[in-house]
Amino acid sequence: MQVEAFRFEVDADGVATATFDVPGRSMNTLTARAVADLGAIAKEVASNPAIKGLVITSGKSSGFCAGADLGELGGGGSAGEGAGGDPEARLRAAFNGAYALNGILRALETCGKPVAAAVNGLALGGGLEVVLACHYRLAANDNPRLQLGLPEAKVGLMPGGGGTQRLPRIMGAQAAAPFLLQGESMTPDQARSSGVIHELAPAAELTARAKAWVLANPSAKAPWDDPKFKLPGGTPNSQTGSQVFTFGSAMLAKQTWGNYPAQKHILSAVYEGLCVPMDAALRIESRYFVKTLSTPEAKGMIRSLFLSMQELGKGASRPGGYPTYDVRKAVVIGAGLMGAGIAYVQAKAGIETVLIDTTEEAAEKGKAYSRRIVEKDVSRGKMSKEKGEALLALIRPTADYSLAAGADIVVEAVFENPAIKAEVTAKVEAVIGAGAVMGSNTSTLPITGLAGASVRPENFIGIHFFSPVERMGLVEIIRGEKTSEETLAKTMDYVLKIRKTPIAVNDFRGFYTSRVFGTYPTEGLTMVAEGIAPAIVENVGRMSGMPMGPLEVSDSVGIDTMLKIGRESAKVTARSYEQDPVGDLVAWIAEAQGRVGRKAGKGFYDYNEQGKPSRLYPDIGRKVPVKVAECPPEMKAELVRRFLFRQCVEVARCFEEGVITDARDADVGSILAWGFAPYSGGVCSYMDLKIGIPTFVAECDRMAELYGERFRPNALLRDMAAKGETFYSRFGPKAAKAAA
Q: Distance of CA 185 to CAs 170, 384, 577, Å?
């Protein structure tokens, strides 16, 4: 027997050990080769009379197995490719491919010999499914990073190696639900208490203990293969079990609004599978797996939330030809909420940080922000006291600009005022070296204009963080007209060092994220101004997949801020902002009603003491009488289209104007920056996969006639539709390589 992903050996006692160790990789994944090797191992164990049993373990210090190789799934490519034009043949090929792992693990489970798993590190997705198919399961109790879970639902997929069938049979459907539907992970202790793991032991002892168990249990079999097996919590058609699935379906509908096919298919697979024997149950799971994989949601989510996130997280957008820029010392100017957060993430990454404000007292307040985070982490056991003290020691609060000497990068995070930004730029550039990066954390002001205050505009760049900095994973990097490629490369290295995902865009007022994001609350306000009940607008906004309704978003941004920006923008057209129905509504609620948003405890919503919305402001109807108080399904679908299409049209304009040039940046940025319908895989994937460019263009023309020119598709979209192009074929990584 020849295997590549495993090392296979049989000891003097007749116990075989299969050590999972994919060559050339730091982490094991279930590649096609690894699955084939598992199949060969299962046959050898079952057919070789000299083998008394099997122990499966890992040769990687990083863990047992991180799951299926999503790259081999082709970023969500069509299942059953290569089966020609026969739909039935393609479907059959897709099922056979999906069932391969299930068939192999079931063969292992029923080989007639004891099989044990010795889990030395994390076991996720398909990795955990391999473990669950073993008769006895041990895990290390001395590895703090060890996690067990089925995270497939987080990227639009569902477990396809028996996870939806074995986990509920071990712990019951209700207890298994968070791990299947939400992709939660469990610690070794949690796994032991729920029966997922039978025994905990030091990593060094796992294999020996597993071998001892194999020798002591020659007749081992899975509990569900015993005719007397009883399902924990009852079967789906029992009184208790039926309640679990009835309430589970209702909760799922509430949490997903029906936008996530994977979760619906998981629940169906569990329900149907628990009604039949294991062999039939695994076939049911494989059918739902194929059905899930073929959805545009799965294709988009795998591509953006896994593949593109990995690529961008490794610096895919970084210009080549420049050595890695190791940022050791950084300066943050402005110790407000944003600057304080930036200082914290820098120090957490081990970067010496100088935090400058107008007074030492103000700078100390900024450092106190980091202290509060550290103290909370220490109290919860997430960080040792020593590490917390070391982190805080890296932040030096001051009002003295001379301490910026020797900095590799500067990030100014002062008020959105060009004059103030110009002043601090001049002060700090007088101190820093000629090769240092000068960055501005701005969300709206054009970088080229701000760079006018710099003596080295080629070193000047926009570095747009999102609040709260310590929790938001994205950084938007903005190139000005004179920003050099070397500066972009250096900034990318800085963002990667502080463990954020960078996207690169070109200069424009509002750049990419703020510009497109603003269309969502504006469209919601337009609907309210049309007389659609505010409650309908808010609920449909959430049903479209956005994290908040558009009115709550407006409150969070600040209605007074929206009013200021709106009036400034209106000056360009030489008309009053209040001449527009949306502008009139915004001015009325901010000035006439004195309701400026969440920060004041009142805006379109009233807020409770915890800062959470308690009710919509009932007097909105005095300004805009409600004309539409009911929302039938067809109207809901139309409003969802308005919300999502409006954002997508603006994205297409950003591509046409060169503001953004990579579909991966657009997709990942749309999800991480403003929460664009994650189930879609992002704005480009929504247009490419969910709608299709020709249909999108036709629908936009229809909506432009009904609702206004803001929906009118641009020349780029029309050209793409005519040529049969998608955003990924025209602006994806393959297109970029071809152009280069």
A: 16, 23, 50
CATH of the domain at 73: 3.90.226.10
Domain range for 126 = 6-291
- Both 279 and 397 in one domain: the answer is no
How far apart are the C-alpha atoms of 729 and 731, rounded to whole Å?
6
Alpha-carbon separation of residue 219 from 109, 137, 301, 401 (angstroms): 12, 16, 43, 75
Task: Determine the angle formed by the axes of helices 87-109 and 278-293, rounding to 10 degrees.
Answer: 140
Kindly report the backbone phi and psi dihedral angles of residue 613, in degrees, each rounded to the nearest multiple of 5, phi listed first: -65, 130
Q: What is the DSSP-derived secondary structure letter of residue 458?
A: G
Count of domains observed in the chain: 3
Task: Compute and round to an integer the Cα radius of gyration of the chain.
Answer: 28
0.85 cut: is pTM over it? yes
CATH of the domain at 655: 1.10.1040.50
Q: Please identify every residue annotated as catalytic.
A: 464
In a domain, 573, yes or no: no
Same domain, 279 and 204: yes
**Is 313 part of a structural domain of the chain?**
no
Both tokens of 375, joined, read: 């103290």
What is the per-residue DSSP string for 527-557?
A: HHHTTB-HHHHHHHHHHTT-SS-HHHHHHHH
Closest CA to 182 of 149, 160, 214: 149
Mean pLDDT per block of 10 residues along the chain (740 residues) reads: 94 97 93 95 97 97 89 54 70 91 97 97 96 98 93 95 97 95 95 97 97 97 95 89 87 90 96 97 97 95 94 94 97 97 98 98 98 96 94 98 98 94 97 97 92 97 96 96 98 98 92 95 98 98 97 95 87 84 96 95 95 95 95 97 98 97 97 96 98 98 98 98 97 75
